[in-house]
Amino acid sequence: MEDLYVNFAVTISKLNKIIQRIKSLEISKYGLQPIHVSCCYYLSKNSSGLTAKELCELTIEDKAAISRALRTMQQKGYIEYDAHGRNEYAKLTKEGSKFADNINERIDSAVKAGSVNITDEERTFFYKFLLDISNNLINYYHYLLKNEDEKNE
Predict the structure, then answer these.
(1) Any alpha helices (H) in the chain, and if so which ranges?
(2) For residue 47, which of 82, 86, 85 has the smallest C-alpha distance?
(3) Mean pLDDT to the nearest integer, 37-44
(4) How far, in Å, CA of 115 to CA of 111, rounded?
(5) pLDDT score for 87
(6) Beta partners for 88?
(7) What is the spatial distance between Cα 129 and Cα 3, in angstroms, rounded to a whole number?
(8) Which residues does 56 contact at the CB level (< 8 Å), separation at least 6?
(9) What is d(CA 82, CA 140) in angstroms, rounded to the nearest whole number?
(10) What distance, in Å, lies between the first and last C-alpha atoms of the chain?
């Protein structure tokens, strides 16, 4: 019988760990950490900027970690803040945009390396299925939380 736990959970865990190691290796030369790769990526895709809360939602990181990451990026001159009402939007500076271009090239290289021997059609199905599984597990997690809350009432 197929061991679904190993095939899924352990493989996904290995995938996450190797992605973190690649991020760490690529970003360490800048004195930064893997979380900065994610922040840089999302900021480069949102020219009007993002709030810390929006980055938390996109990266699935906690607010303290994002705040530290943004502070470091600001100290290095990669981001600046633009206030809109009550919200502060982090935006890439000119230097930050150059940095983001470099990071995005490294991301593209990693994605290509991970996609060797996989057709475009296979990759499309894989990402579709992975997204479906992720959304299903998020729904299951919320279901568990709701049941836990109801038990505690």
Answers:
(1) 4-5, 11-27, 34-44, 52-59, 63-75, 94-114, 120-151
(2) 82
(3) 96
(4) 6
(5) 83
(6) 83
(7) 19
(8) 62, 63, 66
(9) 38
(10) 41
In terms of Cα–Cα distance, which of 72, 69, 67, 93 is closest to 82?
93
**Cα–Cα distance measured from residue 127 to residue 124, given in angstroms and rounded to the nearest whole number:** 5
CA distance 113 to 38: 19
* Contact predicate 99/84, CB 8 Å: no
Alpha-carbon distances, residue 46 vs 27, 34, 43, 71 (angstroms):
21, 19, 5, 18
- What per-residue confidence (pLDDT) applies to 148? 84
Distance of CA 131 to the CA centre of its chain: 14
Q: Is the pLDDT assigned to residue 53 strictly greater than 90?
A: yes
In the block, which residue shows the tokens 């993002």?
50
Res 33 pLDDT > 80? yes
CATH architecture of 4-117: Orthogonal Bundle (1.10)
Closest listed residue to residue 99, CA positions, set 18, 22, 43, 16: 43
Give 97's contacts (C-beta < 8 A, 6+ positions apart): 44
